[in-house]
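Example 9 (inverse folding). The structure is encoded as follows.
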């Protein structure tokens, strides 16, 4: 629900056409953690998510440049036969979409929006064609908006979660 309804709205509001989230296993970007399936304890090796939103063309894509689908909602798009190097697969996606902006998770002020580690940043920027380097921007506001926003469905579910949690706490304390 969040990825399909909230994210395109937030990307449009923040004037971001492409959001690239790059994370390494056991050193996950805080935003990526909110997008992983509940059964995953960590990212898989290097996990790259690409969200492409071009409202004028009515295109919204959720892509994983990874070996595995990310849950049921984000399909793996890495053709390892064509692109043995994961970075090359990502660059092909960027070149073919030609986004007006490419947001990455870097931030001076908010740790939750600063999840791209230095090594991955260097690798990304070294592989990125020169024509796209000026289009790279911080996803700071988009990342914060993603973390702080709730959908209508979530707001309907939260009171139920609070009630269940309260009941569990009461029962747990009464047993002691």
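The amino acid assigned to each position is listed next.
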């Amino acid at each position: 629900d969040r990825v399909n309804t909230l994210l395109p709205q937030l990307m449009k509001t923040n004037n971001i056409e492409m959001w690239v989230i790059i994370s390494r296993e056991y050193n996950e970007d805080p935003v990526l953690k909110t997008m992983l399936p509940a059964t995953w304890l960590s990212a898989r090796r290097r996990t790259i998510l690409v969200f492409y939103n071009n409202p004028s063309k009515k295109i919204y894509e959720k892509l994983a440049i990874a070996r595995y689908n990310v849950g049921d909602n984000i399909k793996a798009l890495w053709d390892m036969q064509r692109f043995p190097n994961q970075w090359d697969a990502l660059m092909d996606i960027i070149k073919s979409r030609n986004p007006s902006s490419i947001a990455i998770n870097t931030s001076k002020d908010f740790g939750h929006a600063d999840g791209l580690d230095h090594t991955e940043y260097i690798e990304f920027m070294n592989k990125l064609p020169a024509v796209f380097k000026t289009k790279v921007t911080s996803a700071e506001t988009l990342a914060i908006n993603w973390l702080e926003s709730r959908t209508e469905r979530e707001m309907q579910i939260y009171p139920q979660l609070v009630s269940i949690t309260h009941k569990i706490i009461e029962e747990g304390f009464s047993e002691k």
